[in-house]
Amino acid sequence: MTVTDAHRAIDAVWRIESPRLIAGLARMVRDVGLAEELAQDALVAALEHWPDDGVPDNPGAWLMATAKRRAIDRLRRNTLVRRKHEEFGHDIEGLHMGAFDDPDDDDRLDDDIGDDLLRLVFTACHPVLSTEARVALTLRLLGGLTTDEIARAFLQPEPTIAQRIVRAKRTLAEKRVPFEVPRREDLPERLASVLGVVYLIFNEGYAATAGDDLMRPALCEEALRLGRVLVGLAPGEAEVHGLLALMEIQASRSRARIDADGNPVLLLQQDRARWDRLMIGRGLQALERAEQLGGARGTYALQAAIAACHARALTAGQTDWPRIAALYATLAEVAPSPVVELNRAVALAMADGPAAGLALADTLRDAPALQRYHLLPAVRGDLLGKLGRLDEARAEFERAAALTRNGRERALLLQRAAECGDAAPAEG
């Protein structure tokens, strides 16, 4: 095996195994930051040994055994081993007795691995951290992404992301956040935080807030992977299935959302033959499971049900807009927000005509949360244009273009503004 081939293999193994590795170590040392350091030490060891020795038959077990030996060395070098001996003495004794002398001996490595991963998810997404910190730490610990990859994905300077991750790990340690699955009474709030982080990652990939690309597929893929992991770890939670359903169905449109030049293609103009029917099928199954678990009125399940209306329509004309409007009305009851109302305005316009949609959109013009939200003037521009009020529509599209930070969206909005000007009747 060449050095290059070994490094490629190590990179692939790291992406797959690092969450399990960090989770298992965190259970042992009760410190997420230290667990990640130990995992990185094991990665360095792999980079040193595998190019010459070859990739072991069970690379995950090799990394875990190496990391745990490094943990013993680390603990021996300081007084932590005496203070912590009773807390995780079972693991330490097993290591001292040579339980992991064979790197491929994985008899115990999968013990509670699902629980360990779930603990890591809840720790990385703990409410004691800011939303930005939760996102960065989740991608680092559970996605195996490097600091540079996270920075590039969010168009942030690498030192900013690095500092954010360091602060997050320090905060978890200082606040003594326990490495555990929350108690049943705390689970709904904590699970909402986890799902919110995963959905934020997905949304940033699906509709990038800034930059020159409409989408960042790697983030969508990472969010989907995390969603599938969560379904495996919490199969009885309806909203976990609801979120996965929503992401699967939304992501099914990815290939149709941009043209050959990378420009956005609006939903009603997309070639539905390019939608991924396999992803749609998986999404519909996840939605059905969410509903079977009693989660039909969950916020993610409702959004997935809306997405399913589009997915089931083989042409734009077959879309069940009255049902979509009704689903948005229910969503507005369950999780009221100006953004939900704006989406309901679009659905009303399709179901009952542009005047009905514009009337609702106009009630949102003073909503503080939408003052810098480019989609409000974009929606108003579209509805005003359909009503023949082209000068007003052009002004709204220009305002929306000024508000967006995404270059592709800006170009589309300016194009639509220009089309309003071209279609406006000449004066005099």
What does this structure look like?
With 428 residues, this protein is mostly helical. It has a domain at 3-113. The chain has 19 helices and 2 strands. The chain has a two-stranded parallel sheet. Helix 9 runs antiparallel to helix 10 (217-233), helix 9 packs parallel to helix 11 and helix 12 packs across helix 13 (299-312). The termini are far apart. The relative contact order is 0.06.
Helix content: 55-70%
Strand and helix order:
HHHHHHHHHEHHHHHHHHHEH
* Low-confidence parts: 92-113
Biggest sheet details: 2 strands, parallel
Percentage beta strand? under 5%
Query: How many helical elements?
Result: 19
**Which of globular, elongated, flat, extended, rod-shaped describes the shape?**
elongated
Radius of gyration: 25 Å
Q: Ends: how far apart?
A: 78 Å
Strands of the widest sheet, in order across it, are 1-2
Number of strands: 2
Task: Report mean pLDDT, rounded to a whole number.
Answer: 86
Counting helices, strands and paired strands, the structural category is mainly alpha
Characteristic terms for this protein:
428 residues, mainly alpha, two-stranded parallel ribbon, 19 helices, elongated, WH-like_DNA-bd_sf, RNA_pol_sigma_r3/r4-like, Sigma-70 family RNA polymerase sigma factor, RNA_pol_sigma70_r2
Question: Helix and strand layout, with pairings?
Answer:
Elements: H1 3-29, H2 32-53, H3 59-77, H4 80-96, H5 113-124, H6 131-141, H7 147-153, H8 158-174, H9 187-206, E1 210-211, H10 217-233, H11 238-251, H12 277-292, H13 299-312, H14 321-334, H15 338-352, H16 354-362, H17 375-386, H18 390-403, E2 405-406, H19 407-423
Parallel strand pairs: 1-2
Domain RNA polymerase sigma factor 70 region 4 type: 122-172
Organism: Novilysobacter erysipheiresistens
Domain RNA polymerase sigma-70 region: 19-79
